[in-house]
Amino acid sequence: MTTELHSEEPRQDPRDTGRQPLPRQEWTGPGTTHAEQPRSRSGVTARASARFEPVGRAVASARSFVRDTLQGWGFADIADDAVVLTSELVTNAVVHAGTSAEVLCLRSDDGVRIEVADRYPEREIPLQTTAVSMGSPDREGGRGLQLCAALAGHWGVEYTPTHKRVWFRLDLPDRPIGTRAAGPALPTELLPLTDGRVRVAVLQIDRTGSLSAWNEDAEELFGYAADQVIGKPLIDLAAWPHTPSTGTGIAEALRLSRWEGSYGIRGADGRVIPVYASHLRVRDTAGEPSTVCLLVRDQERAVLQTPPRAPAPDTASTTDGQSPDPFELFIGSPAPDDLDGLLQRTVERARDILDGDAAFLLLATDDETELEVRASTGLPSARQRFARVPVEAGPGRYGSARMPAVHDDLTAASGAVPLLGGTGMRSVVTVPLKVEGRLTGSLGVAAEAPSRYSNEEALRLQFAADRIALAVESARLGELERLRRGSLSFLVEASDLLAGTLDRDQTLALMAQMTIPTLATWCAVYTIADQASEPYLSYVLHEDEDRIDGLKELLSKIPPPEPIPTPGARVWAAPAEAARQAALRSSWRGLGLGEHSPGDGSTVGTTQATASAVGGETVVLPLVARNRVIGMLTLGKPADEHFRQEILELAEDLSRRAALALDNARLYSERTAISQSLQRSLLPPEHPHVDGVEVEVIYRAAGEGNEVGGDFYDLFPIHDGAYGFAIGDVCGTGPEAAAVTGLARHALRLLAREGYGGPAVLERLNSAILDEGPRSRFLTLLYGELWPQEDGSAKLKVVCAGHPLPLRLRPDGTVEAAAEPQPLLGVMEDLELYEQTLTLDPGDVLLCVTDGVTERREGTRMLGDDGLAEVLTTCTGLTAGAVAARISRAVERFASDAPSDDMAILAMRVPGLLPD
Question: Locate the PAS domain: which residues (predicted)?
């Protein structure tokens, strides 16, 4: 891949010079014809380009290039869409068209334009005016332009004599600039009063919760100098809660991305100072998170609160004499697309409206059967976030979240509001959030005292909920759209990675690494060998590597989840319960109250950390491939955390892809093992030691994963003092040819040991090959019998049936053919073969090869018989092993490409006589 980046104003593209454009097709949006110059460079402020060759990782590299480029330009909002479109278009070029792809990114003030060009201009697309007519979206390929029509603002196709270029433009979303919220103009007498200069304390808290900044106004407000508090946890200074109406822990509030509310700070004189605080999570230049807190006296909250708090309904009225709109009490400063900020502000205002001790807001799932906790105040929000409760609740004045409900005393209506169980709340009012008659959520306010609310409070809360419902639903849909586009990009990457390997262990590792930490805090993969086997814990991963061993030990002590094929995620309570029990036992041992000695504190701390890491919600997703459960994917959260519904749906999509990839890896491993086992059975065992003769064999089968091909060899004892040898070549390569090699090798041994001579052996083998019918293949074969002699020589009888002739090397460097050619096997029924006798004197070498050696090619050149003889002349004085190795190296070096044909080399040498 080659890449170029530019920040200056781009010059004219040299590719545009002198081009004669072919017909061009352009669209804007789905199904609308638009005429726009697709190569316009007006307003371009930067460009980046890269070229990708048609290789396996090109598509993934193109995605990374586009994502890195857009994020570097600050266009993260549209990066996911751009990555998906680029992936489709580059795939069309490098996979389907088989050409290199050029990707060009052009930045402008209002968006980005991306062009993908390939070198296959003949692949024109018939002119269409609507995206609908481009084909079915369910087909396997050709969805690139449909995605352009769906996601891009403008797009088009351009043809030139050398290129086909597809381009699309993504516009930046509208971003709020300047004031995001404002209150009405108020008379001077209604403006809030202050008792002097308003002081705003600015605090900064690092990721551990300790103070890292403390300004002069903070010193004035609370009486502490900066050196007295820097490095101390904020919770040491906070008196929380200051009033019954605030109950969220400060540690929980500091973990939220944004929070506003009241609490108390204990001053240097010991008095509690009520403050109104605004917390904002930020990252510094090194990427470390911290929290900036702005604090004012509680009565001066209008300084931080936008818009100013409206007067109470019973003390003021609007200009038309009506009570102020409860909706004004809900809207604060979060941007329209900041769903979490909007929900948090909503629950705080709802609590204030009804003077409650706690408030909560739940959003409905798509099927409206469950509600998901998204914001709360006065409750353990960090522990309840994304917890799910059923829409249909228990008994009470109303039994469903679809209707307003008032519960005077929850102790008398157990289970009516599952979220409030164990919180100490006694009375509660809940109202639905509906948009066009559809349930989108539920808003509730609770109090610690019984009988705090009546139908009047329910009506007030319902009126406010009706006004906020549309804003909440709009922000929720915006969040879902961003999540789904991000999910699409995630699945594209995951599918590409899973498809890139057929190794089972690597597939398991990829499966776990893709989920952590994107989807979960920890992951475990169970596999099932067959239907009669129990699930086996195959892989464990945690985002904190130090906790992997403890997690693996914990999971190994509990029974695995049941392999239920029902699709979707189901909750598995066993890990959290086991973690809780382990933490409890560890605590008792640490106090010296257990059955065993306390042990060191590190063991107790490790157990507690593991329990905290596993103590949240755990879900199991079945890995189903080809209608069989082959394993389970287990995802977990740390203590008291829950999965959100969108994450579970994404995990379900991933599990389906991972299951198929895992099963493919299993099938490939099984097929490879079977193939290798069968192929090894076709190879001869270790060749026997022949007294007085050196023997060396080099055998290489063509093709990945093949141990045996169409070439074969054998050396075996016939009877005392006699040995048979053979080297042959079956027409073709691969398993089909290997099957004939097995027939030939076993038939040669059997017939030779029955006492048949060389011609008779080959004639009967010829008949056996012809009996195979359509499966028969041509076979060239050199067969011989060897008798070492007492005088140091060796006598041979050979038959060369259509095979490359054996070569004899004498000590003086002379090379000559050692046999005459005869008809090959597997063609004619009646063969008249004869054998030839020769004697190898001391120092002589007999070289037998298959045509994979002589037919080695480099372009139009071929090694041939003459080239082989020339190499053999350089082998005088070498052992049989050295002769075979030199021939093999000469074959490999003759051409730059890897050999495409099977190759066998059999070298036999009679050692020279030792001097007296």
Answer: 202-235
